[in-house]
Amino acid sequence: MFPSTFDYKRAETVSEAIRLLNEHGEDAKLLAGGHSLLPAMKLRMNRPTMLIDISKAGLTGISDLGDKIQIGACTTHAELETDKIIQHNLPMMAKAASKIGDPQVRNRGTIGGSLAHADPAADWPGVVLALGATIHVAGPDGERAIAADDFFISIFTTALKEGEIITAIDIPKMKQKASAAYVKFEQPASRYAIVGCAVNAEMNGPMCADIRIAFNGVSGAAFRDTALEEKLKGQKLDEESVNAACKEAAEGRHIMSDHFASDTYRKHLAGVIAERAIHEVL
Ligand SMILES: Cc1cc2nc3c(=O)[nH]c(=O)nc-3n(C[C@H](O)[C@H](O)[C@H](O)COP(=O)(O)OP(=O)(O)OC[C@H]3O[C@@H](n4cnc5c(N)ncnc54)[C@H](O)[C@@H]3O)c2cc1C
Hints:
The protein is an alpha+beta fold. The protein folds into three domains: 7-53, Uridine Diphospho-n-acetylenolpyruvylglucosamine Reductase, domain 2 (2-Layer Sandwich), CATH 3.30.43.10; 62-172, Uridine Diphospho-n-acetylenolpyruvylglucosamine Reductase, domain 3 (2-Layer Sandwich), CATH 3.30.465; 180-281, 2-Layer Sandwich (Enolase-like, domain 1), CATH 3.30.390.50. Helix content is 32%, strand content 28%. It has helices at residues 14-24, 37-42, 77-82, 84-89, 91-98, 103-108, 111-117, 124-130, 226-232, 239-246, 263-281; strands spanning 7-10, 28-31, 50-53, 62-64, 68-72, 134-139, 142-147, 152-154, 157-158, 165-172, 178-186, 193-204, 207-216, 223-224. The strands form four sheets. The chain has a five-stranded antiparallel beta sheet with strand order 4-5-10-6-7. The protein starts with 6 loop residues before the first strand and ends with a helix. It binds flavin-adenine dinucleotide. Flavin-adenine dinucleotide binds next to strand 2, helix 2, helix 7 and strand 10.
């Protein structure tokens, strides 16, 4: 499998990448880690004539900004897995990163590429929704910040406008009594999520003060299950209450059906995986 012919340019800065992207229009594609784009090009699902490499455009790195952690868009999954700031402040992210693909995928693939690609089975979309992330983008009309809640629109579709680049992702630090977990039922060869559930809960003793629950792999786009959150908020979380609530996980959602899992099985899995993630948090 070979991609169709394409040209290649490496951008040294974000503004150069934006200029090139707009110069070449819809024939151009950004290249970060290439671990979603290149397979799609080899299958001829994507035929860009110009690839703009942003891997050296100054978009890597993880910084502690006090109340939040800022992650450059081209930070790899492997860097997120091993970075001390992430391990200390957002251990759930380090653990989620360790579950992505294999070492080659983790060493090349980036968080920004994963969010922009918005594969329904990708892990980061669910994780950033549960953690309440903000996604920073830059484009021909300047910079803007998009709440993760507003970012994932539908399958492979995000709130990014033509010519925009994700530059960084801000993740608020965990509140004092909060804890987070990400659990997935994975396709054993690729490790893509058949169902993934990320939970971020603030507890007051056994009582749930606040909770964010997000799914990936279940529907065309990752989503927060606000109905499930409402069932658990203000409640005492024990085996019984969590089990009862999770039976209605992903209720009312359009559930995907494919050769890995039917919609009925996926819906069942959503409840089971959510229950496991909540218990991990507790
Ligand atoms: C064998 C295999 C197994 C995998 N397993 C998993 C898994 O278990 N879990 C998982 O979540 N993922 C998995 N992946 C996907 C992997 O994580 C990809 O690396 C990731 O989804 C895309 O990141 P990338 O940097 O490689 O993006 P690229 O492939 O370079 O780009 C993907 C898309 O995003 C656009 N893009 C890239 N960066 C930006 C940016 N900063 N701003 C705007 N647009 C941008 C590109 O133009 C392209 O359209 C797997 C991939 C492979 C090949």
